[in-house]
Amino acid sequence: MTNTDIFTINNAQSFQDQALATFKLQAANCQVYREYIHHLKIDVNQVSAIEQIPFLPIGFFKTHQIVSNQHPAEVIFSSSGTTGMSHSSHHVTDVALYEQSYLLAFNHFYGKVSDYCFLALLPSYQQRSGSSLIYMVNDLIEKSGHPQSGYFLDNHHDLLQTLTDLKTRNQPTVLIGVTYALLDFVEKFDLNFPELIVMETGGMKGRRKEMVREELHQQLTEGFGVPAIHSEYGMTELLSQAYSLGGGIFQCPGWMKVLIRDTNDPLTLIPEGKTGGINVIDLANINSCSFIATQDLGKINADQSFEVLGRFDNADIRGCNLLVQ
Question: Is this prediction's pTM over 0.85?
Fold first, then answer.
C-alpha cells in the first residue's frame, strides 16, 4: 500500500491493516516513538490490533522532532499559544499528503471545493507564521476560484456586505472563523443566511471568557441566522481533521479514527459512552507519528462519532477546537 492509498480506506478491516503496518513502520523509523515504546516495554511483534497500539503523548511535539524518515521538512507547522508557553512543531516531509487529506475530507463531508465561496475570519492565525489552518484555508480559497473568496481580518463591515451579496446570489458559502472573532461579528450585526456554513475552529485566545458549547452555538446560530454551527477538529500535530455538521458531534474521514483512553491509566482504552482522553489515529501522519494521545477529553458514540468535552487540567489552551461543556 502506498502513502496515498490510505485515502481509499472504506472499511474497518482495511483501516486496521494499514494502521498496524504504519505502527510497525514508525516503531522502527521514528526514533522518539521507538524509544517511547521501548520504555513501555512493549513488544512490537505482539501488537496485533489497533487497541494494543501505544499512543505518543502530544507533548513530545513540543520537545522533540517527530519524524519517521530522513527527508528534509517541506514545511514546519507550529502551534499557537500565549507568551511563555512552549509551542508544538510538526515537521512535514510531504506536504502533498496534508493537501490531499483536507481536500478529500472536505469533499467527503461537503462536496466539491469549487462549488463554494470561502470566507475566513481568522485574525489571530493570520498574525503569526506556521499555522497549518492558514495553509489549508489559503488553498481552499485558491481552489474555490471564487472572486469573493478571501480573508476579513477585522473588516466586519466588509464581511457583512460580502455575506449579504452572496446570500442574494444564492452562492454556497463557507465562513470559517476563530470563535472569538465570530462572536465579535454577531455582537455587531444580525444576519439571516440559513444556507451559510459557519465553521468555528475554536479558541478564545484569551480574548474572551470560555463558554459552554451550547451557549456559544446558540449565540452564533441566532447571529448568523443558521440552523447549526459546524466545527473542525484538528491540530498542528495532525494532518487530518474531523468535522461536525452541528451539535458538536464529530465524524472522522476514513483514514482517521478516535479512541478514548482511561484518564487514570493512559494505556487502557475505555468503551463507548464513557468520558476519557482522546487518542487519535491519523494515517496521513505517515511521516511523523500516526498515534497521538491528545490532551482533550471526550467520548465516542455508538456510531463511532465523537464529542469533545474539555481538556485535562493544566493542559495548554490550544487554538483548535476547545469547547468545554
Answer: yes
Bridge partners (DSSP) listed for residue 150? 119
> Which regions of 81-165 does DSSP assign to beta strands (E)?
89-92, 117-121, 150-151
Q: Tell the burial category of 227 from Cβ atoms under 10 Å away from its Cβ (0-12, 13-18, 19+).
A: exposed
The amino acid present at 13, given as its one-letter code, is: Q
Assess contact for 234 and 199: CB atoms under 8 A.
no
Residue 130, by phi and psi: left (phi above 0), alpha (psi -120 to 50) or beta? left
Which residue in 58, 56, 95 sits closest to 73, CA to CA?
Answer: 95
Helix or strand run (H / E) with residue 308: strand 306-311
Give the distance from CA 144 to its chain's centroid: 21
Lowest mean pLDDT among 17-31, 45-59, 235-249, 307-321: 307-321
Answer yes or no: are the C-beta atoms of 186 and 224 closer than 8 Å: yes
- Tell me the three cell numbers of residue 38: 521501548
240-289 pLDDT, tens digit per residue, is 999 999 999 999 999 999 999 999 999 999 999 999 999 999 999 999 99
**Can you tell me the distance from the alpha carbon of 96 to that of 201, in angstroms, rounded to the nearest whole number?**
22
